[in-house]
Amino acid sequence: MTTPILQIDAFTSQPFAGNPAAVCILNGQVDRDWMQRVAREMNLSETAFLRQQEQGYELRWFTPSVEVDLCGHATLASAHALWELGHLRSDETARFHTRSGLLTAERRGDWIELDFPATPPVETAAPNGLLAAIGVSPAYVGRSRFDYIVEVENERIVRDARPDFAALRGVETRGVIVTSRSSTPERDFVSRFFAPASGVDEDPVTGSAHCCLTPFWSARLKKDALVAHQISARGGVLKVRVDGTRVRLSGQAVTVLRGQLLA
Q1: Global pTM?
Q2: Is the confidence at residue 199, as pLDDT, over 90?
Q3: Can you tell me the distance from the alpha carbon of 167 to that of 144, in angstroms, rounded to the nearest whole number?
Q4: Which pLDDT tens digit goes with each residue over 33-45?
Q5: Catalytic residue annotation
Q6: Does the pLDDT value for residue 14 go beyond 80?
Q7: Homologous superfamily (CATH) for 122-243
Q8: Are 255 and 6 in contact (CB under 8 A)?
Q9: Residue 168 burial (CB < 10 Å; 0-12/13-18/19+)?
Q10: CATH code for the structural domain at 3-104+251-261
Q11: Which positions ≥6 away from 174 have C-beta within 8 Å?
Q12: Could you tell me which of 21, 62, 118, 256 has the fewest CB atoms within 10 Å of its CB?
C-alpha cells in the first residue's frame, strides 16, 4: 500500500523559502517507529503525520531524531495539504488532535491562521553554558514551556549570531530563541531559533517559538497584533496576535513536491 506524502514550504508564498515540512497522509494506524524512520528519511526539520478521525485529524510531528509536542510550520503545511487535496472544503476549519491539545487552522484569503496555546516566558537565570554557546550578551533571558528565549540589543546581533552547536546540545532544552526588535518599520520583531538537541541546528521558521515570542513582544511593545520576521537563511514572515491564553499565527504556504511512499 502506498502513502501520499507532500513537501510544503510554510510561512512563505514563494517556493524554496520559509520552512519546508513533509506531510504524510496516513491510510490507517501505523507504528511510531515507522513514522520516525520516515522523518529520518525526509531529513527535514519536521515531518507531519495525519490520520483522519471522526472529529478532525490526529496530527503528530517528528524531527529526524525525536517526536515533538508542538510544531507550527508543519501544522500550517498540514492544513494547506488538506485543503489543496480536497480532503477539506476551502471554507472548512482544519481540526487537529495533538499532544498539545486541539489546534485549528482557518483560511483567511491567501493566509492560513493557526490557533495555538500561548507559552509566555518567565524570566530566569541563564543555565550554565547557554550564553557562551550562543555568543551573545543578553538584555533578557526567559524560559517558556519548551525553550529558552534570549533578547538582545538589536537585529544585527541576531543576524550575526554564530552558535557553537556542539556546546548548545549540552543545554537541557528543546531549543533557544534569540530575538530583538526589528530594525525596519514593516516588522515588529525578529528572531532565530536553534535546536541542536532536537536534531535541528537552526530551524528556518518556527511557528511554535512564536507562541512564546508573541506574548513576550506584545507586552513589550504594548500591542496585540504584530508582524514577525524569522531571519534565517531561508527566512519567513508571520502575522501574530495575542488572543487571551491563545495566540493566532498566520502564514502562507506553497507545495513544492507530491509523491507516494512505497515502503
Answers
A1: 0.92
A2: no
A3: 21
A4: 999 999 999 999 9
A5: 46
A6: yes
A7: Diaminopimelate Epimerase; Chain A, domain 1 (3.10.310.10)
A8: yes
A9: buried
A10: 3.10.310.10
A11: 68, 146, 147, 195, 197, 198
A12: 256
